Fold this protein.
Amino acid sequence: GVLIERLSRVHKVGPPLRPTARQPHPPAGRCIKCHDIVVKVPLEKKDNGFLWNL
């Protein structure tokens, strides 16, 4: 576990999580230990669209 965590600081060691993935992902930003794409999700629905949390 510790070795993988150290390696993940240099290179992402897990698969990318797509926004359409069935598995859970961080609410926003990126999981720095595993994933190499940025995930954006809406915070709340507004009348003129969504308020996005980056």
About this structure: Residues 2-10 form the longest helix (9 residues).
